[in-house]
């Protein structure tokens, strides 16, 4: 072997020895790579699962946010609509009649409380609110006219939402059908008064003085009986040649020797002007009585006369509130009245009332004349409260008077 051959062999051996550790290292690394690859795949799967779950959660959150946003938008829209609705005050009821040619009566009963559809009735939630209202508006006297229904509204009003304590100042005799001349004297002189029998048995005028707690406010409340739009149950007669004219009335009404041929004239041109006009007068419709003796045409003529009378003599400082007639329940009426005082007739008279009142507000500038809520429409869903075909249980009168207080105190 030459020196060269030995060198070549030595080099090959050296190369062989050099490659052998690399081969051995790769064999050792394969298990490690498999292990790491497995771990990587596991980690990748975990991360992918987390991303999937997060994406679903994000989607759910997005759905919740969208639903919440949708709900909020609806709530905001509803709140906006509520805010756009106006408070049910006297001015709103007056504008409503002018626009719609009818009294406001669409609504619903909720927990024995009536809620209108077109406006919001504020609640008098505490006695303090009513006291504050009467004091703020200086309401010292409230008058009411009507038949036996008016006496029942009077009974509810005397409660004053639970705060009034009332004492009777005077009252007509209830056991007879005729007006009591002594009730109207003073201020009128009894010798000028003439009375006739009323149709209503037990109807009687009454004046009470009601005081709130601690004597903060005191209001007189009076009811005077009327059975028709033109009554003749109490009248006056004076003669110039006898020298019995009342100079006080001449100073008030500029009539040289005034006398009154209707009950309404006695009340509105003599009695209340001399004793002091109320700050508010509730006039309750007497359509059940009108049905006995009037046609709709008769009623339209007489009602126009009546409205013309009150808006011409009652001062603008007095608010005149007119309430129409509620439903009757023929099934509970005596047989002899069922064909007389029917709901269809009452509905016609209510429509005539609305038309005449609207005309006087628009054409005669009767700004102190206010239509109240449509009792005919309101009462149709609570006829189970009707007791005898015409009159209702006390809850009805309490509800109506609560509407009166709430509306009056927001005007």
Automatic annotation (TrEMBL):
Q: Which UniProt keywords apply?
A: Membrane, Transmembrane, Transmembrane helix
Q: Quick one: where's region Disordered?
A: 1-20
TM regions (residue ranges): 33-53
What protein does this entry describe? Uncharacterized protein LOC106172651
What's the source species for this entry? Lingula anatina
């Amino acid at each position: 072997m030459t020196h060269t051959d030995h060198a070549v062999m030595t080099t090959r051996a050296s190369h062989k020895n050099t490659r052998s550790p690399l081969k051995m290292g790769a064999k050792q690394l394969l298990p490690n790579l498999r292990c790491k690859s497995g771990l990587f795949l596991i980690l990748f799967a975990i991360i992918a699962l987390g991303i999937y779950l997060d994406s679903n959660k994000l989607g759910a959150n997005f759905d919740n946010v969208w639903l919440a946003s949708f709900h909020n938008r609806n709530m905001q829209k509803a709140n906006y609509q509520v805010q756009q609705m106006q408070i049910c005050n006297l001015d709103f009821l007056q504008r409503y009649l002018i626009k719609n040619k009818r009294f406001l009566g669409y609504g619903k009963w909720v927990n024995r409380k009536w809620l209108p559809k077109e406006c919001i009735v504020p609640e008098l939630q505490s006695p303090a609110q009513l006291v504050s209202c009467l004091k703020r508006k200086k309401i010292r006297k409230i008058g009411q006219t009507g038949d036996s229904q008016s006496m029942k509204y009077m009974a509810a009003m005397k409660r004053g939402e639970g705060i009034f304590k009332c004492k009777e100042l005077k009252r007509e005799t209830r056991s007879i059908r005729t007006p009591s001349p002594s009730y109207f004297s003073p201020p009128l002189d009894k010798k000028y008064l003439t009375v006739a029998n009323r149709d209503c048995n037990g109807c009687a005028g009454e004046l009470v003085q009601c005081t709130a707690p601690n004597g903060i406010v005191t209001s007189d409340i009076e009811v005077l009986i009327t059975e028709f739009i033109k009554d003749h149950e109490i009248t006056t007669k004076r003669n110039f040649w006898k020298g019995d004219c009342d100079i006080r009335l001449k100073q008030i009404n500029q009539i040289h020797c005034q006398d009154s041929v209707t009950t309404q004239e006695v009340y509105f041109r003599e009695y209340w002007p001399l004793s002091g006009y109320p700050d508010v007068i509730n006039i309750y419709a007497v359509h059940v009585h009108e049905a006995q003796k009037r046609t709709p045409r008769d009623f339209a003529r007489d009602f126009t006369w009546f409205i013309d009378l009150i808006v011409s003599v009652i001062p603008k400082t007095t608010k005149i509130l007119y309430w129409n007639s509620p439903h009757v329940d023929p099934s509970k009426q005596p047989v002899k009245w069922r064909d007389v005082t029917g709901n269809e007739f009452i509905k016609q008279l209510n429509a005539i009332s609305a038309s005449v009142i609207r005309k006087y507000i628009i054409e005669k500038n009767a700004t102190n004349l206010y239509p109240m809520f449509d009792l005919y429409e309101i009462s149709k869903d609570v006829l189970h409260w009707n007791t005898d075909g015409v009159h209702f249980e006390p809850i009805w009168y309490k509800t109506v008077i609560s509407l009166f207080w709430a509306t009056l105190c927001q005007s």
